Every structure is written in C-alpha cells, then in structure tokens.
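Researcher: Re-running this chain for the archive, since the previous output was lost when a drive failed. Same request as before.
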Amino acid sequence: MRRYGKHTDEDDIRSRPNRRGNRPRTSIRPKHEDAAEGMVLTVDRGRLTCLVEGRIVMAMKARELGRKAAVVGDRVALVGDLTGAKDTLARIVRIEERVSLLRRTADDDDPYERVVVANADQLAVVTALADPEPRPRLIDRCLVAAYDGGLEPLLVLTKSDLASPDKLLELYGALDIPHVVTSREELASGEAADRVREHLAGKITAFVGHSGVGKTTLVNALVPEERRRLTGHVNAVTGRGRHTTTSALALPLADGEGWVVDTPGVRSFGLAHIDPSRVINAFPDLQPGTEGCPRACSHDEPDCALDAYVAEGHADPARLYSLRRLLATRERKEGD
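Model: Regenerated structure tokens:
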C-alpha cells in the first residue's frame, strides 16, 4: 500500500474521475463575505422569519451548516433573494457568535436540550400572586437557567389585588432582582406595561411564565398591533390564524427601544443541561470564598469553604442560602 508523508506532491495524487462532469466535492466552505446581516424573529418547521435591513425575509438553513440550528434572536448571515417578496426564500449561511443562550429541557431526566432564545439580555419571569398560585420552584429554575445562560433576571408579579407580594419578594430579596408588581386593573389599563417598559429600554427581553399568569396580555400591551405589523405575514407562512405563542416570537418595541421575545407557556423548566458549578458565577460576592473548597465541591456539603467565609462576615448569610436553594432546585420537583 502506498503511503504519503506530511509533504506530498499534489500532482502525484490520483483523483477519482467525475462522471457527471460537474465540480468535484470539497470540504472548503465558501466565506460568503457579501452576505447580509439579519436577526431571526421566529422559526417554524424549517422556515425562519428574519429581519434584514428593515425587511421581513423568509429563509432556510444552508446545508453547509450541518446540524447547527438557528434560533430566535440569532444574528445570521443570509444570501439569495433578500427582497422579502412573496414566495421568495433566502439562505442562512452563517450563525454569528452568541453572547447569551437561554436553554431548557422538558424535565431533569431529559437529555434533549431545547434552546429558547439566543442573544437576549434579560429574562422576565412573569408570575401571578394568586389564581394560579405562585410556584417558587419554577421561578428558581428560571433564575438558574438565566444565570447559566448569561441573562439578567426580572421578576414581574401580577394580580397583586388578589394577594400580597411581600412573602415572595422576601424570598428573593437577597438576590437583589429587579421587580415590577402589578394588579389586574393595571394590566388591563396598560399601566402595568408602562412600568415594565422602563426595564426593557435598549434590551432584548425574553418573557416566560405558565398559563394564566397574564404574560400574553402583558406582551400584547407592550407591543401593540401597529408594531406587530413588522412580523405580520409570519402567520401566512406558518398557516396559523393568529400567533398563540406556540413558538418563540421576537417583537419590536416602539422607536427601536428594544425587543420582546414572547415564548410558549411553560409547565416545567428542566435543568438537565445545567452545570451547577456555573451558577456560582451569578454570586460574585461569594466567589472568593470558593477558593478553599474541596475539588468538585457542590457548595452544599459539610466541607464547603463558603460556610466559614460567610461566618467570618465576608458575605450575607441570606446570599449563601439563596445560592444553595437554587443549586438544590434540580433535586426538587417544581411543585414542592
């Protein structure tokens, strides 16, 4: 058998004849330096709705991307027909580097990771104070996913006319999370949307919450019908009469002040993909205390150095309690 060394003479290597007469296959990928930049607004059955220079463009993923999938919020490079005209289709040839990534699994035993949104700055967790009752474990899980993915959390508490927010706010007080408390009347009048909007300026914010908490009502108030016209013909492509939050959808706020990403209602928020060692990154005041921890410390065991660190007054004990509660959330069911 003939072998070639490191420095072969290319002319000495035989190539298999190409019977079809077309160009031979190559592993070299085109650079597409002239591709246009766009943002993915929604994904449905292999078709991606993108915003390209103010136009809505339908696209599909190029074969050269392999199994890499684009998701809502992705910055992408597109080639082909970028006019946005009816029945035209562009091609996504590159997915730019992501700065954040919100992910979840169906449950903690599910190995299949679902990407909810890319490049979001903030995660707004919408929770009712009553009807339905708040689910702190679900909130904890959303917070862990936000911290792990590089998103800042925002708590939006609805239906304060039915129950006081004090107990829930006390539970998360040590985390110093920004929050907005609203009533049903404020949600209906649009006053709630005005106060939430103050936290959205210049940011891409993903909204999550389970059914009945008022998430969709709030999003509709934040992005009125005239702003939805930008993505208006998405339904014509997907075949749906109206958007019912069955897939994530990015919607622009007025005057380019930011984006709202409406996500499907969640019944669970699995964390099988989360490495618990990364959650400590959201607690910079506790991080120095981990230097004395044993290798692979879970930060919730007898030899954890954080106990002594807090006892010496370097950090608030409530912060350590919050960290351990979040770390333990994978071992607890969301309804606990």
